[in-house]
Amino acid sequence: YLWLHVLSLAAYFGATLAMVLFVLPAARAETDPTARRRLLVAVLRRYDPFVITVLAVLLMTGAFRLTSYKAALQGLFFSELGTVLAWKLALTFVMMMVAVYSVFGLGHRLVRSADWQEPVDPKTEAGIRRRLSQALALALLLAAATSVLGLKMVRQGVSEPTPPPGAGEAARPPGTVR
């Protein structure tokens, strides 16, 4: 699952970085409120479901790998991964909350207002765009921090879970073959 985990992280990071560096500045530069909304809604209709899917894959592949680590390391799990893992899980939780807020709390709000053909309120929309930009930037920082912690775990030699020496030997009756 490692390659899928890394690919999902790259997809999330790339899509979100594109939003922060290209889409939101282009929308900010657009002077016509209707054209600005059209631009944002067109991008958010694709970005929102894509990011939710990628985050789900990222979360599940991380959980699958964590489960295999726990099974392989058994009693050494917390002593080997405890501190780094606690920080990585905490930052991942915050990143997910910020990312979901940016999609459902802000992005979906813009899409819904366009779908319901609500009038464009430039002041309200500017506030949503500002909060969206801040939330996405924070999510990128948190994703980078969790990536650094993931790399730290890899450097500690836990890139592929392997059982500790002698693990499982006691549970097997004498004379049984693997």
List the helices and strands and how they pair.
Layout: H1 2-29, H2 33-73, H3 77-115, H4 122-158
Overview of this structure, please?
- By secondary structure, the chain is mainly alpha-helical.
- The chain has four helices and no strands.
- The protein has helices at 2-29, 33-73, 77-115, 122-158.
- Mean pLDDT is 85; it is low at 171-178.
In short:
This protein has 178 residues and is mostly helical.
Mean pLDDT: 85
User: Beta-strand percentage?
Assistant: under 5%
* SSE ordering: HHHH
Q: How widely separated are the two ends?
A: 25 Å
Helix content: over 70%
Large-scale geometry: elongated
Q: How would a textbook summarize the main sheet?
A: none
Number of strands: 0
Annotation field: number of helices: 4
Structural class comes to: mainly alpha
What radius of gyration results from the CA coordinates?
22 Å
**Unreliable stretches, pLDDT < 50, 5 or more residues?**
171-178
Any descriptors?
178 residues, mainly alpha, 4 helices
